[in-house]
From TrEMBL, chains A, B, C, D:
Its EC number is 5.3.1.5. Coiled coil: none annotated. This is Xylose isomerase. Mg(2+) 2 binds at residues 266, 269, 305, 307. It is an enzyme of class 5 (isomerase).
Amino acid sequence: MTDFFKGIPAIKFEGAQSDNEFAFRHYNPDEVVLGKPMKDHLRFAAAYWHSFAWPGGDPFGGQTFQRPWFGDTMADAKLKADVAFEMFQILGVPYYCFHDADMRPEGANFAESARNLDEMTEYLAEKQAESGVKLLWGTANLFSHRRFMSGAATNPDPDVFAYSAATIKTCMDATIRLGGENYVLWGGREGYETLLNTDMGRERAQAGAMLQMVVDYKHKTGFKGAILIEPKPQEPTKHQYDYDVATVYGFLKDFGLEGEVQVNVEQGHAILAGHSFEHELALARELGIFGSIDMNRNDYQSGWDTDQFPNNVPEMALAYYEVLRAGGFKTGGTNFDAKLRRQSLDPEDLILAHVGGMDACAAGLKAAAAMLEDGKLEAARNERYSGWDTSDLLGLDLSTIETRVRELDIQPEPRSGKQERLENLVNKYL
Amino acid sequence: MTDFFKGIPAIKFEGAQSDNEFAFRHYNPDEVVLGKPMKDHLRFAAAYWHSFAWPGGDPFGGQTFQRPWFGDTMADAKLKADVAFEMFQILGVPYYCFHDADMRPEGANFAESARNLDEMTEYLAEKQAESGVKLLWGTANLFSHRRFMSGAATNPDPDVFAYSAATIKTCMDATIRLGGENYVLWGGREGYETLLNTDMGRERAQAGAMLQMVVDYKHKTGFKGAILIEPKPQEPTKHQYDYDVATVYGFLKDFGLEGEVQVNVEQGHAILAGHSFEHELALARELGIFGSIDMNRNDYQSGWDTDQFPNNVPEMALAYYEVLRAGGFKTGGTNFDAKLRRQSLDPEDLILAHVGGMDACAAGLKAAAAMLEDGKLEAARNERYSGWDTSDLLGLDLSTIETRVRELDIQPEPRSGKQERLENLVNKYL
Amino acid sequence: MTDFFKGIPAIKFEGAQSDNEFAFRHYNPDEVVLGKPMKDHLRFAAAYWHSFAWPGGDPFGGQTFQRPWFGDTMADAKLKADVAFEMFQILGVPYYCFHDADMRPEGANFAESARNLDEMTEYLAEKQAESGVKLLWGTANLFSHRRFMSGAATNPDPDVFAYSAATIKTCMDATIRLGGENYVLWGGREGYETLLNTDMGRERAQAGAMLQMVVDYKHKTGFKGAILIEPKPQEPTKHQYDYDVATVYGFLKDFGLEGEVQVNVEQGHAILAGHSFEHELALARELGIFGSIDMNRNDYQSGWDTDQFPNNVPEMALAYYEVLRAGGFKTGGTNFDAKLRRQSLDPEDLILAHVGGMDACAAGLKAAAAMLEDGKLEAARNERYSGWDTSDLLGLDLSTIETRVRELDIQPEPRSGKQERLENLVNKYL
Amino acid sequence: MTDFFKGIPAIKFEGAQSDNEFAFRHYNPDEVVLGKPMKDHLRFAAAYWHSFAWPGGDPFGGQTFQRPWFGDTMADAKLKADVAFEMFQILGVPYYCFHDADMRPEGANFAESARNLDEMTEYLAEKQAESGVKLLWGTANLFSHRRFMSGAATNPDPDVFAYSAATIKTCMDATIRLGGENYVLWGGREGYETLLNTDMGRERAQAGAMLQMVVDYKHKTGFKGAILIEPKPQEPTKHQYDYDVATVYGFLKDFGLEGEVQVNVEQGHAILAGHSFEHELALARELGIFGSIDMNRNDYQSGWDTDQFPNNVPEMALAYYEVLRAGGFKTGGTNFDAKLRRQSLDPEDLILAHVGGMDACAAGLKAAAAMLEDGKLEAARNERYSGWDTSDLLGLDLSTIETRVRELDIQPEPRSGKQERLENLVNKYL
Ligand SMILES: [Co+2]
Ligand SMILES: [Co+2]
Ligand SMILES: [Co+2]
Ligand SMILES: [Co+2]
Ligand SMILES: [Co+2]
Ligand SMILES: [Co+2]
Ligand SMILES: [Co+2]
Ligand SMILES: [Co+2]
């Protein structure tokens, strides 16, 4: 035991009336919702990077956090892991997620970085075994180091493509070794700063080739987890190729990978792309590529990705409603890709930010489940389209339809969309 | 001759030094640029709707324009057509574009609206014959009438789908009769106001079926023009299905129509979707679906579609650069989907707004052509990616690449992206 | 009794468990909160314009609503008033708000419009007397008619200034006659479309002069209500002078009117200006110009003013918290400047949209009151600044302070801002 | 001479036809425009921070630049100064600007930081004397160090206020010693992350007190330069108190400092606040607080401050037009608060980015001057308002005006605002 979280108890469910900051008011892991324990619906994961590797900087200021494990030795990395698993256990989250760069020191070259990754992977495997905490997904950080400044797979320099491919392989290996249930690709630098120096055709082909290699490696290794792409429209680049769910879908179709790859949808990225979170989730479901979620929150008044812990339960209810309509998570889960505000310096802040987020998720899930169980919303939706249940129109052609419109003198009469009534209905479950 | 534009002369090219408001300073239709007269590069079209049908209203105020043809008789419609063709000839634009609702009075039912459309189509055919002005594209207005309030193809009511299909047929017929070179679909109401009452799966399937019917009708009639979708992310609806070029591409792929349908890209819609105009053009080119452009301008400080006449030549140069890189327009052209500000009441305003827009396009085109001819920009781009010209990487797999990275100890060294130098270079042509 | 709302009962409180759409689940008018009946905290008002005068149009489509009172006769206006008061009584709102243009037909000239206003004012006075419903505020519509297209007070044409001033006088007279508790100015066209034709100095001076005239007339007539400005950054104009609370404050200071005029803050306008609603409310309070609120909601994914009925209780709790910290409403209240979605065609929609909004306000108010009563949030805030309670720093000068920093070797140690913990705390009350 | 810029010549004017990247095509320092050499209109300054202190990081990646002076010794700081003055001389910029943190190493405590600042100030004084380059403005960096994470003047901890005040004093002293022509305050952390922990009233009072101290110290020391506030709406904080020009004006009025303090307006900050750059400049002029400009550019598709080198000449012409209408710069100038894209690694990039920016400014200035000289734009503006030249309306009251409207039966007739014609006119000068 480190003493970083000294004095902070394991968080237990105490119910909505509890005044204890260090307790769940809504998240009751074993409470059954729609026939399944809440924990199996939510499949919470904590993120290694924001919680343990991020120093608190922003574009106008440097490090605010002072953590005993900040440094670049293997001993630092192991202390970081110790503290991380202590947090996972305090919170009772069943999963965590990592990038290679979060958990191992950067080496002097590829081989040394890979060696460090191997060693830390074994260390984490032990921690997993001891704690029972599992890996939701692993991923490669192909955006922080200056070598990736012009992209990873989409770099104008083939050497960077090679370095990226090799890195992905090691991260997939680590994910497999740790029993990860998914492997994620977030193309933070796969985009451009200016069209003037960009060959979009080449870069697109490179990205497609890399994704194919990842899928091939999955099959070669027998990895059973899902390959996930996390869309984001921009930031860090001016324009990212994985803009949103619809864009990723077109990309997958283009390379014939729509059956192989799913999406990890993040609320903040949906917002930056001009969508609601529930839109992206519903679209992913309809396109058959829904995989997992990053449940953080964006500030609606900011134009950048704030990665805040979520707290607006009505919004979260709408998100989980779409998750439930998609049949719930299979390999996916609820990852907190969320960071403390840089002024939240204390160990308590790290724990309580997660507690608040988990509780808000639980409250949202319960409301969503009640909505679905009641069935009023779905009944209203089905009723609205019921005219189509018996219609033959989609099998006809324009000329036939025109004749019918003339002969029957069809004059459609609009019917109320009842938006406000449905919004009232949603509020009833909250 | 009506007297609406009385006293306004036909606009002629007088050169950059001219002080005459009623002259082109850059647009010299027969001047050869990159081996082709400027007019054949630009293929200008004026829009019937904004110039002649829009009354000047906005969400907080009603009609400001007082036009002698405002009314709903066939005589009004013919006077409108007379004035419209006078404007086309004053400007010397070779093309125009229309919706059915712009040029015929709404009838009491479908049959009467169709009859009105037929009669006006014949009237316009005569005007085309007299003037030599041609039709760039026709389209159906499936968004203004209250029957379309919940969508056209994507309406929950099959009767609206039927009415829409029948209307599209009549508009395609009119387009064919008038020798139109394209047929455009803009799905202003194909989206949703709230997910709560929306069945996105059904609506998507309906939209796909309608598009297939349009393509089938094209083939059945032997229409040689292109079918174009005009993407827009939102407005009027909260969320539109044809969000942007990438989204339309995924939709086309899903329904196997990517070889049949292209895009009509509008600057203002690109902006609303979080892209630059040149991004959307470049992407359409790379995806093989570039068709035509709506060359208007959006206010960067507004969150809605302002449809202003374009005037920023550096931005337009970047747009035409992508058009030229796509091989220029085939069936497409430069449509001004632009409206006067509602305070610009005078007939002169209508003429001069187009003159300014055409001149800015011409200046942009000339700069783009010079950039392309010089070849420095393309040389820099090609040089940046030249490492790929001899690379075998895209044919390998992750394991092979990893071995190579280890064996060669690949340590990629970043090279300058030279963005500012390239921006300076662009400014040299302006 | 008209039959517009036939069959719709007066809405009563039934409690959170009620399944009755036509009942309040949270708004219990006489329930005492912080020592005052809920109705006296909230002071609800319905808006004449959106509910009864708006035809359902948007920039891409016309009228969707079909109301028996649509027309321009005095009989229509009276029927509209009858229905409006029926709605006020069904809802049990104690107040309503109007523009002149909402309730009287436009006349052929100023005198006739004024006569129509007079006649309708008497009619409304009778309805108020019969029903007990009161007027929260009146205002002049100086933006819809084409005469105002270039502004009202800020018009380049003095005749429009004159017409506007005369109109304001008649609207203030009507407000006084009807016992209104405030008079509001929303300068929808007081701004510009392009700086190129705008003399901002002159327009600012004109606006200041008009506001002074309004204040003078208030004093001359002995009107005891508050004069309120409603800030909005843009839409309809590209740029509006009353951008936000801070801008209005600077304007008031410039003309020495900060003691005479307060603000009516609208949620949607706060969002459009890049602020949160609670920011604008808190700022107005700190500047001493808080007056009243327009409690509607903006869509975060839209760039225009959607004026939706509010429904996100957590957001509303934060807003009412600032209202309560300001001491609550004096003359102000909670006006629903909200319109039905244009697809919500039915009379039931109009009633239930308000019911949902009122209920969400009540839930928000109760949460805000609980937060304030508990005192934990304020205690944490005060504790954070407690170092200042005994500090003499603000009375010193730079040199003295520098000496002290050197002598005491002051090295400030940052303390956690505890944002997530406070967010968790807020969620406890919801 | 260092060898950082080895081989790069001093940049000379060669005219618009020059193909030499390392030459000005528009900026001809001694060319007379409106009776004054161009260099005295533009008063160019380079920024120490972005060019020499910024390592190339962004929120998702670290340092990309590798500069020989990166380090924290006095020797590093002096090498940095040597290179900086070499750049100033290569470019021929007459001015530069700095923060304390750009040019001196952070010390172990206040006294050591101040000593470092003193030593570097003397070093810079020598460099100024040798080179003839002057200081446009100095400023204190009160946002990068973690001690300022919760604000400087507006910090909840009085110790931070004290540390900030002492730091400002030393920076003002350095500015005075170096003959600076202005002193700037940019309150990057003067705002809040969450209202929940913020006492806006206290923070506002603290900010006012600090500004008063700065003004007092200016008078005490006899400093003749201007005190400037640089508005910015957000970033780094969620909400900054110096939101925009109008907000700063209200703040100055509140503390009676509107005669003492002016604004330094940055294009990118104007954009982030929802304004055009020219709006902010025109407003500052009308309010009498125009001081200086930061001439960088924001990406319209990004929601954060990109601080790019400017290159859109039409936009810059509109900006300089407002500067010229304000009478030009007095103590102010054109500062490039612009940074290289983080992929622009080479010394040449740094030089050429400035060359392009200076050239674009010069082209914009010349166009603006031509517009002003021609007088057509101002003539059109004056004509539009000419009705006011003889109007007595602003001296009347509402009742008198109403009587006049009735008696004269005033029916204002709208006149065209001619926006497109004016936009065409502007394009003529470009
Ligand atoms: Co994110
Ligand atoms: Co994420
Ligand atoms: Co448009
Ligand atoms: Co268009
Ligand atoms: Co509004
Ligand atoms: Co309002
Ligand atoms: Co900036
Ligand atoms: Co700046």
